Amino acid sequence: MKPMNMACNNFMSSPLTRREMLGRCAGGFGAVALSSLLSDPVYGKAKSPFAPRNTHHEPKAKSIIFLYMDGGVSQVDSFDYKPRLEKDHGKPFSAKINPTQFDNIGKTLKSPWNFKQYGQCGLNVSDLFPYVGEMADDLCVVRSMTSKFSEHNSANFFLHTGFGVQGRPSMGAWMSYGLGAEATDLPGFVVLNGGLIPSGGWDNFGNGFLPASHQATVFKTGKEPLADIRPRESREGVQKAKLGLLNKLDQGVLERLGRVDEIESAIANYEMAYRMQAAVPELINIKGETDGTQKLYGLDSKYEPTRTFGMQCLIARRLVEKGVRFIELTCPRISGNDRWDAHGGLKKNHGDNSRAIDQPIAGLLRDLKSRGMLKDTLVVWSGEFGRTPFAQGSNGRDHNPFGFTIWMAGGGVKEGFTYGATDEFGYRAVENKLEIHDMHATMLHLLGMDHKKMTYFFDGRDMRLTDVHGHVARDLIA
């Protein structure tokens, strides 16, 4: 057919065949699908791995502060009072003894510290934690936590990743991957390193098979905090030029090879690091904090480890204000002590360690509460296991994964509540026993995530933090 009315470009062409129509419109169908995806915040912002993502249900908490007690705090010397130990002190241990980490079993050992009831809830807390004890009515104490491992490395991997082996994603990485961060100039997962990296090393904070952008960003604390964030270039323009060249080279590789996580994550991390150079100095500048607030955290303490951990707790609060999703604090290094790992010298070990953390933790809880932030910030206090109620040698305690104490506060958990119990010696969990998988499932639930649905396809199947285990401890939720 000849075109008609050529002068005004208004002409009729021959009709399309069905095959031609499908061929020409195929790209349009893709555009319709893309438009739908881009309207979803999860996909529309997927260019940034740190962008906020939708939750599975209404969250009770926005952020988690994980207070990691490296080495294992003795439950019977802190939050699990057992009069039977006083009665049997110095006698051979009368209950069945499981194989211990170091086969050096001594007599039944009572706590060197007195216990006192705190708050309207009447929580028994030892003299190790007088400041935290004053916050008893805000605590949700679990006395029946268990672990599958009694050796530090495996127990640390299990606590942090849900597996007792190296190389799996950390819980902080999972939460960053599942939820992103509300902060635009800070990552979703931050570790505040007080001086002690857990046994097992940096893999406790790794991304495993998740995209590399979700591994922890480790902040140093001390006299020169976060020194590694300072630019080395003397002029800003030089750094921008370097970053521009790196980005151009990386993009070129992506165009040739397609999506490569290592490269995409490197680009995202370069961009984040550049933004952090402006954000971090403001973050760690506490001159705007009142003298009262700084004293609350123990920053005026004569004991240096208290000042160190106090600064960590204060920075943790400021990170929550910035929208960081998961913040973990490691313990400060204390001369003459090996973490909370009191195989000998229990009184000095636990005494020095508690002196470092007690006031700062209570200060953190008080500060969050006074600012109205505790209700949607979940604070979790835990080690990788507990310790035996009988002595190792004469004045220490061995590792005990069969029953130990953790506590939570804020973020939707019950206040002034105690859950579970160990036997009369504080040795084994006998009531409402929980596992680390249950703790992970509950933490995710409080953040609005279903632990069974938050998966990542790897090695032929959908992986998750809790693997095929875990249940939400709903009795802990307010």
Question: What can you see in these coordinates?
Answer:
With 478 residues, the protein is α/β, with parallel strands linked by helices. It has a single domain (50-228, 286-476), classed as 3-Layer(aba) Sandwich (Alkaline Phosphatase, subunit A). The chain is built from 12 helices and 18 strands. The strands form 5 sheets. Strands 1, 5, 6, 7, 8, 9, 12, 13 and 16 form a 9-stranded mixed beta sheet that branches. Strands 2-10-11 form a 3-stranded antiparallel beta sheet, with no helix packed on it. Strand 17 (456-458) and strand 18 form a beta hairpin. Helix 7 (236-257) runs antiparallel to helix 8 (261-284) and helix 10 packs parallel to helix 11 (346-370). The longest helix is centred in the C-terminal third of the chain and has 25 residues, at 346-370. The chain is globular, with a radius of gyration of 27 Å. Residues 1-13 and 26-46 have low confidence and may be disordered.
Any descriptors?
single chain; 478 residues; alpha/beta; 3-stranded antiparallel beta sheet; globular; disordered N terminus
Chain oligomer state: single chain
Number of beta-strand segments: 18
Largest sheet: 9 strands, mixed
Number of structurally distinct domains: 1
Question: The CATH topology, please?
Answer: Alkaline Phosphatase, subunit A
* Distance separating the two termini: 76 Å
Radius of gyration (CA) equals 27 Å
Poorly predicted tracts of residues: 1-13, 26-46
Q: Which architecture name does CATH use?
A: 3-Layer(aba) Sandwich
- Strand fraction: 15-25%
Give me the secondary-structure category: alpha/beta
* Proportion in helices: 25-40%
Mean pLDDT: 86
> Helix segment count?
12
The CATH first-level class comes to: Alpha Beta
The outline comes out as globular
Succession of helices and strands? HHEHEEEHEHHEEHHHHEHEEEEEEEEHEE
